[in-house]
């Protein structure tokens, strides 16, 4: 069996999905997702210009060797662009493997370990009342777990991922062009306000709702430790990215002062970046994505390593992921003995479902993986021709005096 060709499509309904389709001499094809938010044309070019020409003629069934060829074969390797491109190829090869075996990918990994995978949705508000309305709406939709982000008095619209005005939706990506808008941040105001807001939500919604919160890398280690201690009464399911991801030692201080569960890893691109945090048991959830962590092949290894250290999965599932990588993650979620939760923001719009038909389904806050062979998601190429790449950016963050801060 041979890979004969591969095509890359960039675009989608309100998103620039990077979709890879690998074709074979036996008519079976595989799909992959290389979407890298606001940098979409780069993994697409890496695939078209470098990787696709190199894998044509290879046997697609040898997904492990092809992954090693891509990663170890590159002297300058890794980084989010390359890993997203390897990830897309790897997903497509697992899709092909499943289709030729007549089995869904989760069966190739070890079968189903659960009936449905717990997912969480996002709720955000310009202030606490607005946020409470948004949480109530998610519960109404059936979600049992919700990530909550709230505007801070004195800096409206400036908490991470919150709308500027009541009832408005907040979109991280602004398709107005490549020059980012500026949001302001003040850690002092955040630290004074947010613990009380989270505790208030816990009181309002009761003990059963799983509440998650994302700090988006904005606190210093001492502040993060103090914040983690202050939010303990809110009984969070997790506290996400409390400190900048580059400094893994920062978490030690937080661990010494709090038992709040910590989730990290959405910006990690390899097993090596997860290795220390997992082995030293400094985190409770690992947040990698099958796209920019390089595909199912390496993420399966991360899951196994995590399982040895009581770390559960909580894969990244921001809206930038296409239904193809969400399907790949759904198969891992169905199998992973140490599954925790899945961020879930992708399927559901009619346009998206039409572009990527599948019978994966969300019900009662759980994701039910499809039993169709392979990844169980298809791609309508004719429909894809309607969508074009739209340059976008997410905001940058500055302190009130103009100093740059972590987005
Ligand atoms: C999340 C993430 C995202 C990122 C986005 C950046 O937890 O969902 O923090 O929302 O901000 O993916 O491009
Ligand atoms: Mg996050």
Structure in words:
The protein is built from 13 helices and 16 strands. With about 400 residues, it is an alpha/beta fold. The chain folds into 2 domains: about 5-105, Enolase-like, N-terminal domain (Enolase-like, domain 1, 2-Layer Sandwich); about 110-370, Enolase-like C-terminal domain (TIM Barrel, Alpha-Beta Barrel), CATH 3.20.20. Strand 13 and strand 14 (about 365-370) form a beta hairpin. Helix 6 (about 185-205) packs parallel to helix 7 (about 220-230), helix 7 packs parallel to helix 8 and helix 9 (about 270-280) runs parallel beside helix 10. The mean pLDDT is about 95. The site of magnesium ion has 5 residues, from loops.
H/E topology pattern:
EEEHHHHEHEEHEHEHEHEHEHEHEEHEE
Q: From the 3D coordinates, which CATH architecture of the largest domain would you assign?
A: Alpha-Beta Barrel
The CATH fourth-level homologous superfamily of the largest domain: Enolase-like C-terminal domain
Query: Which cofactor or ligand species appear?
Result: D-gluconic acid, magnesium ion
Question: So how many helices?
Answer: 13
Task: Outline the biggest β-sheet.
Answer: 8 strands, parallel, barrel
Fraction of residues in H or I helices: 25-40%
Structural class given helices, strands, pairing?
alpha/beta
Quaternary state of the chains: single chain
Rg calc: 21 Å
Domain Mandelate racemase/muconate lactonizing enzyme C-terminal: 128-261
Family: Belongs to the mandelate racemase/muconate lactonizing enzyme family. GalD subfamily.
GO molecular function: magnesium ion binding; mannonate dehydratase activity
Protein name: D-galactonate dehydratase family protein
